[in-house]
User: Fold M20/M25/M40 family metallo-hydrolase from Catellatospora aurea.
Amino acid sequence: MNAAALRAAAQARYPAFLARLAELVEIDCGSRQVAGLRQAAARFSGYAADAGLEVTVVPIHDDTAVPLGDAVVTRLSGRGTRRILLAAHLDTVFPPGTAAARPLTVDGATGRAYGPGVCDDKGGLLAGLAAIETLLALGADGFGELVLVATPDEEIGSIGSRPLLAGLAEQADAILCLECARDNGDLVSARKGVADVEIDLHGRAAHAGIEPERGANAALAAAHLTVALQRLTGVNVGVLQAGTRPNVVADRARLVVDVRAAEPAAYEAALADITRLAGSPLVDGVTATVRVVAPTPPWSGGPGTAALLRAAEQVGGELGLTVTHAATGGCADANLLAESGVAVLDGLGPVGGGDHGPDEWLDLDSVVPRVALLAGLIDRIS
Assistant:
């Protein structure tokens, strides 16, 4: 594909990208904010329909049938044979009222846009649509089918979207994930596995002054367990709660533990060690229940990812863009999609940073070259 034409077509999509970004950022759509997530899904569905894509809205629920919002699945058929899946998400981590307090702003001196979700992942989602529109403008239809999915629950581990993502991944020949590039421009070629482990300790209450020996102190057990868990590699006790009053032997305590590991064996070993330690009699009379929430296994790249990286490097070279990559400690839907065995590459949105914080930013100067890179990569692997 002619690099100059690719850049020009991507540049033509930039005004619409920026207008859409402002519209999506003005919607509060943190995880579980169902009304806002449905509004964001409806707005994105409109953008995709206007571009000529087939749009399907899929209601998403958790395992207790509580609504989490809507996923949007868009499709575009071509004349080729390969099916390419693009994956992004609608939800953010911010509470209601954030969009009104921090609407999209642009710093002309730095070329950065600021706002909730501007980088994670509204910028990436809209870059995916812009890349498809770029291909349409150039008449590049060598793919068999392009599928772009936007889910409403990535920030809480895609607890309801996992079956949808698994089904789409099984049908794909290549998967391109639209989390934004790292703040230095790196694509993402591997991600650590992550799990939250909830440990509830059950003791027995008693008067702390009169008959403490009748109690079983869950707070003490939690303290011992915290020390033991912190000795494990890749484990962090982030939440520790215990008791109700200072003069009562605590009959309950709760820990929430973060687990991260780059390799599957280390990930499974950490989870097994947590279960073993929680089951030890740290304090007589205190028992534990352990629940692993939204386990997301490591994605360590592999030959398929390496092949996609080579293609991205080739397209980048033609565009005058140096393509670099890195592994990262944060997990994303790329981890789940890689379980299919299909080749995955992530970080294909524009360059951004400050994720989950009040200064989250998107480099607007990176939008056109990164949309061109994504469009060229889709065409190259088609």
